[in-house]
Structure to design on (518 residues):
């Protein structure tokens, strides 16, 4: 979580030598894809599938939220670890773009549920799930705008970026975890609405949804683990170099002159 | 999250100079006490209060879990920041003891709900809340046992401790966050069971419970923020010193001889 790269070179942690990073990333992707596939399977097998019309419009909501705010948002955070030796600017643009995709997909999911509520005459924004969801949505948007203006355009001064970076990392991870938590609340809500008392008889749908819930938790934990390992952060040299390049690019254009 | 103390001395983060730590800790305690008070208010005002008999026995469960696994567990993690300049061993014992208290209170809450289910003839362990809760409970116990045997008795070697420490810190924070998430799932479950369709009409109980949910999230976020600020970690000197003292104590008894 903290952005300290300079120490820990001497301390190597259990099962976390830099060589293990690809395996952890592969495991996170496996979990993320299982989450998306199982959400699709749940909606397809037990909730009648997906459409933009009728009652099936609701089902667009969980699928879009899981793809956008859980899977893609998680992967956007992992970009700095997966491409830890690539140019910082490329990584940064990829990070920003993945968040844009995540946000657009989540927006479709949000429109789907509001439209469904409107057609059915249901009340909006009364549940804890909806309150947490709106909070995640607003925080995502603010975080993206502030991140974009500090790190990409127009870009803040070198020292201001260094001061803001740990906050950006902390709130990015927090928003991601809050997204996972909100997904769990939504899953639980839908199960209690549709299964009701049948939930307690270990119906296949209930068990599948519980497993989906545990997979969501596991994806969140593995992403957080990869993010917080000190040895897997970007090497300081590459980062310092790239940062000063960014600074030059933004203040002096693309001229290769040294400061 | 990562235990790197040696860097970051030069980089100071926005709004996180060491002088601000007491204010953040005070804020976290205010949030934690509000969470406990509001849980009590919810159970007292809308759920008929607390007793070990009849239907009121269920209400022991949320109150104990919030006090034990959320408030006390959160405070056990903060001990290393609040007493960052005290002797490491004292802090360590306090950390372990707070976890013991948290665990005992949570155990009472667990017995309450199983006993209530048994008397009412309800099924056990079918919901996502219960699956997450059992996971938290088992992880807490394992984490405490491993932590105790590595850091207190019999104690592992200096290098083994250094390798295990980041894992202990990561899983400690993860178990705490999972506790907060499980509390949210339980709150949601109880609201849907007892309020049902009245939840969507903005009944006072529903609004109070949603605010309680947001307070739980806020407590989790503030504790995590305090834990992950690099500048608020224990100063390296104090720690190294205390660690080598522990090491001496365990290997050579209390003799003040140097190695």
């Amino acid at each position: 979580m903290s952005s300290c790269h300079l120490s820990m070179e001497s301390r190597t942690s259990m099962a976390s030598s830099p060589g293990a990073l690809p395996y952890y990333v592969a495991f996170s992707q496996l979990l993320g894809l299982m989450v998306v596939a199982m959400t699709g399977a749940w909606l397809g097998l037990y909730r009648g599938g997906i459409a933009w019309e009728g009652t099936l419009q609701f089902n667009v909501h969980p699928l879009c939220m899981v793809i956008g705010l859980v899977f893609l948002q998680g992967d956007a955070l992992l970009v700095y670890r997966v491409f830890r030796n690539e140019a910082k600017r490329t990584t940064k643009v990829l990070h920003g773009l993945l968040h844009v995709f995540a946000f657009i997909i989540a927006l479709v999911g949000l429109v789907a549920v509001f439209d469904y509520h409107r057609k059915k005459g249901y009340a909006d924004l009364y549940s804890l799930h909806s309150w947490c969801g709106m909070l995640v949505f607003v925080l995502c948007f603010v975080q993206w705008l502030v991140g974009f203006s500090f790190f990409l355009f127009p870009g803040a001064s070198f020292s201001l970026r260094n001061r803001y970076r740990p906050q950006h990392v902390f709130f990015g991870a927090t928003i991601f975890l809050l997204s996972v938590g909100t997904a769990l609340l939504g899953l639980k809500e839908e199960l209690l609405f549709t299964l009701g008392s049948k939930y307690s008889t270990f119906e296949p749908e209930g068990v599948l949804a519980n497993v989906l819930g545990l997979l969501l938790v596991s994806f969140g934990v593995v992403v957080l683990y990869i993010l917080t390992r000190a040895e897997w952060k970007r090497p300081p040299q590459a980062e310092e170099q790239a940062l000063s390049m960014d600074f030059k690019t933004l203040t002096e254009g693309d001229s290769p002159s040294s400061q």
Observations:
- Chain B has a mean pLDDT of 88.
